[in-house]
Amino acid sequence: MNIGVVGLGLIGGSLCKTVRKNTAHRCYGLDRDTAVVEQALRDGAVCGPLKEAQLGDMDLTAVCLHPRQTIAFLQEHAAAFRPGSIVTDVCGVKGAVVSAVEQPLMRAGVRYVGAHPMAGREFSGYAYALDTLFDGASFILTPTEHSDIGAVETLRALALELGFGRVVLATPRQHDETIAFTSQLAHVVSNAYVKSPRLFNQSGFSAGSFQDLTRVAKLDENMWTDLFLLNAGALTEEIDTLIAHLAQYRDALAAQDHDTLRALLRAGRELKEKSLAQER
Questions:
Q1: In what residue span(s) does the Prephenate/arogenate dehydrogenase domain sit (predicted)?
Q2: Environment class of residue 41 by beta-carbon count within 10 Å: exposed (0-12), middle (13-18) or buried (19+)?
Q3: Are 158 and 40 in contact (CB under 8 A)?
């Protein structure tokens, strides 16, 4: 296949490098920063640059931009894709994106299916792209009742070809509600946690737990602002749930209530153990 990748950041760049490493497909890259495209060419990550006028030559196009940029690009270029070709995006929020772009692309005869590769780093940009980023990761597809089954199967097969460990199907709503807990809440907590006045006194006092909890505090605030606001309902629910649980711990501490605190800690441990057993 001729695969077009729009946006050669961490995910788009890693996609190109992985296509080159693991498949016989031909990958072409489009980025507003021409220096990034030139670097991708030097690296052999892409076969050539992708011009907007060449979108119609692609069998499959993956748009790897921030959510609002993705919506704008797909709405503006819907007629540029070849009818029958496959278009996907890799945004970490699906409901808002799918509802905004599915109909314009359908009217253009394009087979669109939303996707979300569950892989990333605390760094952004092509310079940090890896051809191993997706190894063993989950690849989520969010088809709707309008999605073409053949397009879903093509994307599923490509994901496995790229080295993803599993492909998960979910509705856009299921995706967003779950990702609010598994990813977005973790970024909020990490980002808020480092605002402690003791942050700059931690040297020599921190170990694995500090590193684990603070890793994703180093985020791209532009992208994550988009992601949070486009999934505000589900994320707000998760934050409210967390605040309620934290209040229970705080109250037990303030009351020096040994039994309640121990019960809270035991309940959390047991839930974690149950979730681990379910994954096996």
A1: 1-280
A2: middle
A3: no
CATH class of 175-279: mainly alpha
- Residue ranges, CATH 1.10.3660.10, the chain: 175-279
Per DSSP, 199 falls in state G
Each residue of 174-232: pLDDT tens digit? Answer: 999 999 999 999 999 999 999 999 999 998 998 899 999 999 999 999 999 999 999 99
CA distances from 129 to 8, 25, 41, 77 (A): 9, 19, 14, 26
List beta partners, residue 5: 29, 62
- Kind and range of the H or E run holding 257: none
Q: How many residues does the chain have?
A: 280
CATH superfamily of 2-170: NAD(P)-binding Rossmann-like Domain (3.40.50.720)
Give the chain's end-to-end CA distance (angstroms, integer).
35
